[in-house]
Write a structure and sequence with these properties.
- This protein is α+β, with helices and mostly antiparallel strands and 656 residues long.
- The chain is built from 20 helices and 22 strands.
- The strands form six sheets. Strands 1, 2, 3, 4, 12 and 13 form a six-stranded parallel beta sheet that branches. It has a five-stranded antiparallel beta sheet with strand order 16-15-14-17-20.
Length: 656
């Protein structure tokens, strides 16, 4: 992305739930791309800041606190410490990493209430009464799902995402009086901003926008409040027991964190300059799961406050990256190697490279340690041994010496463009190519052999030093720790900057060849064990359909919520031969399910069928459509065959 030289740049990462495990997948999709780009822009001398943080009022925090017997505040404190430790270990560099609770950001709650009050006075927020089931025992409004057999008997796995009230199924069954009473909630009006939003959304370059089901039907308003004992209270007289939903106020954390970072000295005015297009470019790094709210609700919140809209969104895909805990993986492997390998995966494309231990071994041990690191250490070692640690003169360069330096210039241009395009894979590929050429050059020159012309050795090691410095600088945004160690060995002072690419390490410069960065060794036995597990895992996934699987406990099975659903609408999906788009009635609820059954059933054959549905499957996006469940079928020689109840049962009935 091209930035105007005189503009400030604000990079943000989404405020994810503080207790969400920081996996390799999230590291690769969110934090690592933002960190690499942040470091790259700083190397260019840009006026750039990067902010991020945690969503502390997320309903999962309330449930986790209930299970552990701790307060939500203590739960946030514990997980925030863990999150910051992991990010630091992975060398993720934020200008400010904050949170939405006053444990971290004392200004956020006040800021959110001020915004709510302002929008309410402008009539962009309005209250509405809706009838909802009321628990007489607990004196609380609860979602209908709580009374429909969805509650689990295990309180620690309580599913009440809408209310935050942790009641067990047994308690609810005792609640005989469940009248529907009017409950007031507040809604953010979107309709007044529809024309401005539609004009803005057309300007966005994200290909996925056209496929996003969330954006196809522009709704006139959104509920932004609910009932919960842990959150930011609604600042209205009749808003008792109400809080602003975390997914809304965590968006406003971008503004409050900017204020926290920049506005303290100037009564809050400085931070606003970071949300004006004439002075700042705002780039949001988000996961695909939250892209919908960032493209719909967030810009409208900004419009309502008369602030400018973001310049760009970066939503990198990492579905093929495993959800291994980032902390555990970094305990086994050097973070520099992990950052290098993850950056080489094609997360910016629709089809990703799949993470594998075999590829990680090749990338880290062969491409990086043997070639790139190996080249630099050989050069430094020979300079230390043959020239007493002083960089030799580069006065008499031959054609082959000049050729390699010219190839460096070509690589620099390609790598800069790759960084601008946020294509880390191209950066890694180009540096690996340059490293390969440098090693070929070094082997041909063979400075370890005696030569009739000493200047040949001098020029070879002089050029080798220049290439070493350039490779360290070019990789600095991706693996900063190793790059700094090379600069230390070359005795180069100051910050690593892009402008210094053209500067030569002068002849006579004293180096510290022995001050090298030592990568922890991973034995061949360890690599083979990892690859064996990977192969066994792949083999298990390809096992015949009738082969027995690993035994599970009843508790494992109880986690699956399977219910009978009735197909009330069915149609083919254009340009998708295997998929049908279904609307399925499950009790009082209707869900959209994208099913891969079009080869076996026509829409007419499916309509009216009552089928078992896995309803607590995480929603997924297929062909741009959200699928909220999965039909369970028998697999008969690779073909899907429906499972039908032998008696008529109402939709919503639980399968046990």
């Amino acid at each position: 992305m091209d930035q105007e030289n005189n503009k400030k740049i604000l990079l943000t990462t989404e405020f994810s739930p503080v207790d969400a495990p920081l996996s390799l997948q999230r590291m690769c999709a969110l934090y690592l791309p933002a960190d690499i780009y942040h470091r790259y822009l700083k190397m260019q001398g840009k006026d750039v800041v990067c902010i991020g943080g945690s969503n502390d009022y997320h309903t999962s925090v309330t449930r986790k606190a209930h299970v552990s017997g701790k307060t939500p505040r203590a739960t946030v404190q514990e997980h925030m410490g863990q999150l910051k430790d992991v990010l630091a270990k992975w060398q993720i560099d934020f200008s400010k990493f904050s949170g939405t609770s006053n444990l971290v950001n004392v200004k956020h709650a006040t800021f959110v209430r001020e915004v709510f009050t302002s929008l309410y006075k402008k009539k962009y927020i309005q209250g509405k009464l809706n009838d909802q089931l009321f628990s007489s025992i607990h004196q609380a409004y609860l979602p209908e799902s709580c009374f429909a057999g969805e509650a689990t008997t295990k309180e620690q796995e309580n599913p009440f995402l809408q209310s935050c009230f942790p009641f067990s199924e047994t308690e609810l069954k005792k609640d005989e009086e469940k009248p529907k009473l009017p409950r007031k909630d507040w809604y953010l009006k979107l309709e007044p901003f529809k024309a401005q939003w539609e004009s803005w959304i057309k300007e966005q370059s994200l290909e996925s926008i056209k496929e996003m089901a969330e954006l196809k039907n522009f709704v006139p308003s959104f509920s932004i409040t609910g009932e919960c004992y842990w959150g930011i209270p609604v600042p209205i007289e009749d808003g008792a027991k109400k809080v602003i939903w975390p997914w809304v106020e965590s968006l406003l954390a971008y503004l409050s964190t900017t204020q926290e970072l920049l506005g303290e000295e100037n009564e809050g005015e400085t931070w606003k300059s970071y949300w004006k297009k004439e002075s700042t470019e705002v780039i949001h790094f988000v996961t695909e799961d939250t892209l919908g709210s960032h493209l719909l609700v967030w810009p409208i919140l900004l419009m309502a406050q008369e602030l400018d809209l973001p310049s760009a969104f970066v939503a990198q895909s990492a579905h093929d990256i495993p959800v291994f805990p980032a902390e555990k993986v970094s305990e086994k492997f050097d973070v520099n190697l992990l950052r290098y390998y993850l950056s080489s995966l094609d997360t910016g494309k629709e089809k990703n490279n799949i993470f594998s231990w075999k590829d990680f071994q090749k990338s880290s041990q062969q491409d990086f340690i043997k070639n790139t690191v190996g080249f630099s250490q050989r050069v430094l070692k020979f300079v230390d041994q043959k020239f007493s640690g002083e960089v030799p003169s580069g006065e008499n360069l031959g054609d082959d010496d000049k050729k390699l330096l010219e190839q460096c210039l070509e690589s620099e241009s390609k790598i800069k463009q790759a960084y601008d395009n946020m294509s880390w894979k191209e950066v890694i590929s180009e540096v690996a190519s340059l490293s390969e050429k440098a090693n070929q050059y070094f082997n041909q020159k063979a400075p370890w052999k005696k030569s009739d012309d000493p200047s040949q050795t001098e020029s070879c090691l002089y050029v080798g030093i220049q290439v070493t410095k350039k490779m360290a600088l070019l990789l600095s945004p991706i693996i900063p720790q190793w790059s700094k160690s090379i600069y230390s060995q070359l005795n180069l002072e100051g910050e690593v900057s892009w402008s210094s690419l053209s500067e030569k390490v002068p002849g006579g410069q004293k180096i510290n060849a022995k001050d090298s960065y030592d990568f922890p060794k991973v034995s061949e036995k360890q690599w083979k064990e990892l690859q064996k597990r990977e192969t066994e895992s792949e083999g298990a996934s390809k096992a015949p359909a009738n082969s027995p699987k690993e035994q599970v406990t009843y508790d494992d099975f109880a986690r699956l919520d399977i219910r009978i659903g009735e197909v009330i609408e069915a149609k083919k999906i254009e340009k998708a031969d295997k998929l049908l788009q279904l609307q399925v009635k499950i009790g009082e609820e209707t869900r959209q399910i994208i099913a891969g059954i079009a080869q076996y059933y026509t829409p007419e054959q499916v309509l009216g069928k009552k089928l078992p549905i896995l309803v607590n499957l995480k929603p997924a996006k297929l062909r741009g459509l959200i699928s909220e469940g999965m039909i369970l079928c028998a697999d008969v020689k690779g073909a899907a065959v429906f499972l039908n109840p032998d008696k008529d049962v109402p939709s919503g009935s639980t399968v046990r």
